[in-house]
Amino acid sequence: MACIWDTHSLHFGLLFGILLSFSVTTNGLKLWPMPKSVNYGSKTLYWSTNMQLRTDGSNYADSSGILKEAFERVVNLIKADHIIEAKFANSSVLAGVNVVVHSSDDTLNFGIDESYTLNVPAKGSPLYAKIEASTIFGALHALETFSQLCYFNFTSKVVELHAAPWTIYDLPRFPYRGLLIDTSRHYLPVPVIKSVIDSMTYSKLNILHWHIVDDQSFPIEIPSYPKLWDGAYSYTERYTINDAIDIVKYAERKGVNVLAEIDVPGHTLSWGVGYSSLWPSKSCREPLDVSNEFSFKVIDGILSDFSKVFKFKFVHLGGDEVNTSCWTTTPRIKEWLNNHHMNESDGYRYFVLRAQQIALSHGYDIINWEETFNNFGDKLSPSTVVHNWLGGGVAQKVVADGLRCIVSNQDKWYLDHLDATWEGFYTNEPLTNITNPAQQKLVLGGEVCMWGEHIDTSDIQQTIWPRAAAAAERLWTPFDKLAKDPKDVISRLAHFRCLLNQRGVQAAPLIGNGREAPSDPGSCFKQ
Amino acid sequence: MNCLRGFKSLLYGFFFSFVLSIWVRVHGQNIWPMPKSVSFGNRTLSLSSNFELRTYRSNYLDSSGILNEAFERMMHLVKAGHMLKTDFPDSGIQDSVDIALNTFDDMLTSLPVLAGINIAIRSPNETLNFGIDESYYLYVPDTGSILFARVEAATVFGALHALETFSQLCNFNFTTKALELHSAPLTIYDQPRFPYRGLLIDTSRHYLPVAVIKSVIDSMSYSKLNVLHWHIVDDQSFPIEVPSYPKLWKGAYSNSERYTIEDAAEIVKYAEQRGVNVLAEIDVPGHTSSWGFGYRSLWPSNGCRNPLDVSNEFAFEIIDGILLDFRKVFKFKFVHLGGDEVFMGKAPYILLFYSELNDNNMTLSDGYRYFVLRAQNIAISHGYDIINWEETFNNFGGKLSPKTVVHNWLGQGVAQKVVAAGLRCIVSNQDRWYLDHLDVPWQHFYANEPLTNITDPNQRKLVLGGEVCMWGEQIDTSNIQRTIWPRAAAAAERLWTPLEKLPKNPREVALRLAHFRCLLNQRGIQAAPLDGYSRNGPQDPGSCINQ
């Protein structure tokens, strides 16, 4: 069944349902996430065996090959590992795609124009699909959408594009559409991180929030403080700084920003393996010692190194779940707090604000978990973005205070909550109870979080997908085009999940809790 | 900790753990599966940044690129996704660490450099025949002016195993950001214990995309498994194109959950380039409900849809057509004809043609035997040797073609009966080697001995090997690899390594297997932790090596 949006397209859809065959009803509007505006016809086009990328009229020179590589990836994804029949005779041959990009710049800035138009004509010789976008990154989204229009025909053994002509205009609802991964609780090998990045682009997510370090391990190399990664789990479970550069570059070439997190002052036990003076004491190992200037020097060194690697506008400074008892039970620190007329929550505030200043000095805007806002919101730097996680209803308070916000309420958007269903992911609305347009703009978007306590290479993709895709549509598609009842999108999401499988991504069945195995034999489309 | 064999190597190990740093202990002797014979020294070599493949004195021309591609894959795997120093000629961040790197440069240059690997293959032939010589010899010197690792093998497929072993000896040095090999000089002589080391996948209960099947093949080569048993069709769906009977794949789940015959050929080619044979199964006469969607007359009736209609010549014509098409694609010596779980006694079925069986003076089980033997003859006429599930042997073993290989699955103790009857056997007893049995831990996979109670050397030779089975009722793309690995690897060592080198207690290999599981993860394979219940997620945060 096609998913049909309003009465206009409903008539359209019914008409087509009668006129056209099985393939259109199954293939018609199976795009995920649903674009802002879609019109389509009834004609089937056939791929040329030699699909061409053209850039007639484009201002983008593609000197770094981003576009060319993206085109080749898309062609391979569409072929889905099938062998394509070399010769066939038909007049409606799609010769290729012409991509016009207005901007010559390929820097992936935050809030960049990601819009695109995609036209697939039904007539003309030769026939070219036409993509127009302000930036190369809009064009990448257009290619992903294009890939979802094409199908391998198992009878003729050629690739077909159904329901031409197509006119699609599309742009994201929110500029921040994130996924968190956690490489401290379990190390994730570089190829695994890259495969997560690949899969993000299929649902147009654009921020990989890399929670690199936590209590359990410190896997990344910090050249300024080379003993920090002594806190890694093992010799091999580490990332060199060049690995990090490679990951960032890999992500950016696919339109994905990498947000590095260095969570302070809590969640830092692993730091002291290399520099034990960062621990309040040997027996009480976090939060970082607020009384020790060295704590801030190390943060400065980390952020200095990060600023050369992680070029994203933001850095995440954590600030969540800070248990300050080690500060009060360690006499040295207790005394320092007294001398500075601070209680422990003053110390927490002092630490967070000072870390913010360090980040600002390195040119970063700051993201902090919501506890910083809940405890001393009015003291935060105005460039702070507050990252909600504890529950619903936080964003409205944050934006009422004039700060920006990212939504990740754990009851709906924590992927490690296996009892959180895709329906809950789909219906979680970041702008709930926010009506003032100026305040709405302060909600940058949202993020689904794949915390790693029970996640490693073996189960990460299965736990992320398809639930993250449900949130991805919420963050991309215009509000008025989102289904009120997730039941209305179930067959389209099932179709997208099968597409992920086809592309080798271990997306789990929709039925059941997070990452459940299929309960019975059956078609992918029904599970 | 190393897994060390014998008191001498134990002392050796203690010595080294003092002298050398952590990575030697992790990497020294962690090859999986354990080769037939290994001896190693204590020197570290640095792999040249232009580490090259040479084929001096090789008779194998590699016109199809099997060896060259395998070498490139190996180099890629050894990097484990890391950036080598030479991958980063200039970057801002490196300026700040230049001093540090310079120091390590000195260290790096002080190590002997391994310039490449020379692979000499005796046979120019690259046909992957069953029982082919898979042995190899690998030597890594530690002295000489230009150091080259040396591989000698009878066939290119032995050389592929050598490259896999070599890849497990190398590691990325996080300080120098270069590749190293520890424990030189190294001498390894290796060959498999059994010629048949299989893994079954099932694309009928759930369709597996071609990309997923290819990734399963990749992962098989890491533990030197060499037969992919493709249970293509079953009651639930008929996903493959059969050009001779083009309506058969109407029994597919959906339009897209299908394989063209070209897809099948591509999968076979992909596998063979990695030394993996593809065994196609066409299970008859049971497990065939999906056949009738294209050709209804194959069903006994609309209400009773399997086994195939024994009274209908068309059933045999279609098997002939399938095997004719298969023979062009599946070049392996064997085809699997199933023959398991045939239920003949469903009421309407009996009523329908019990009379016809009667006309031919057959009982129900005579009909079953008649069907299986006739299918065998069709397969033989297409040049195949036959594999059948053990029910055929249990019911009428005396009548089976002597070319039959009996595929055990119901339980233990079957192989000894099969080989006593002079037939060949493959072991897959479900209580130990069925991967869909989530309650079977890796230790049981490891300890399952195919030659149990078989002492006569001639009979032993009739056990071709074994196979772990990943039945697909609850398996799809989302969980197949984590359900297969690491348990399949435990069986792979049982099938590869000489019996006398296999410890009685699987505990002794736990750490080496954990290391191999981490290696699979590093290569992007979703191998599950060892310490939980089959494919469970990790219970707690921690290092891969401890889970």
From TrEMBL, chain A:
Limits of the Beta-hexosaminidase eukaryotic type N-terminal domain: 31-149
Protein's UniProt keywords contain Signal: yes
Enzyme class: hydrolase
Reaction catalyzed: Hydrolysis of terminal non-reducing N-acetyl-D-hexosamine residues in N-acetyl-beta-D-hexosaminides
Active site: 321
The family this protein is said to belong to: Belongs to the glycosyl hydrolase 20 family.
Protein known as: Beta-hexosaminidase
Protein species of origin: Rhynchospora pubera
UniProtKB/TrEMBL annotation, chain B:
Cellular component, GO annotation: membrane
Highest taxon above the source species: Eukaryota
Positions of the Beta-hexosaminidase eukaryotic type N-terminal domain: 31-169
UniProt keyword terms in alphabetical order: Glycoprotein, Glycosidase, Hydrolase, Signal
Active site: 341 (proton donor)
EC number: 3.2.1.52
Enzymatic reactions: Hydrolysis of terminal non-reducing N-acetyl-D-hexosamine residues in N-acetyl-beta-D-hexosaminides
GO BP terms in the entry: carbohydrate metabolic process; glycosaminoglycan metabolic process
The Glycoside hydrolase family 20 catalytic domain, residue ranges: 194-498
Molecular function terms from GO: beta-N-acetylhexosaminidase activity
InterPro entries linked: Beta_hexosaminidase_sua/sub (IPR025705), GH (IPR017853), Glyco_hydro_20_cat (IPR015883), Hex-like_dom2 (IPR029018), HEX_eukaryotic_N (IPR029019)
Record carries keyword Hydrolase: yes
Protein family: Belongs to the glycosyl hydrolase 20 family.
Protein known as: Beta-hexosaminidase
Species name: Rhynchospora pubera
Species classification: Eukaryota, Viridiplantae, Streptophyta, Embryophyta, Tracheophyta
